[in-house]
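I am writing to request your help with a piece of structural work I have in hand. Thank you for your consideration; the sequence and its tokens are set out here:
=====
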Amino acid sequence: MMQFLAQNSWVMYLVILWTLPWKGIALWMAARRNDAWWFVSLLVINTLGILEIFYILVFSKRKV
């Protein structure tokens, strides 16, 4: 795996470009909603944006 990443560093750049915006938006939303557990989870767990997308689209919706 390390040899693959060494030869194809563009893959790592794509992963970073995909993950950072999702993580930033999700962390910002969790902080504004005072969701401390979500904030810590999103900060520590790296799921390539999957957990962040679920938080943004499903869990962060305000209950009416």
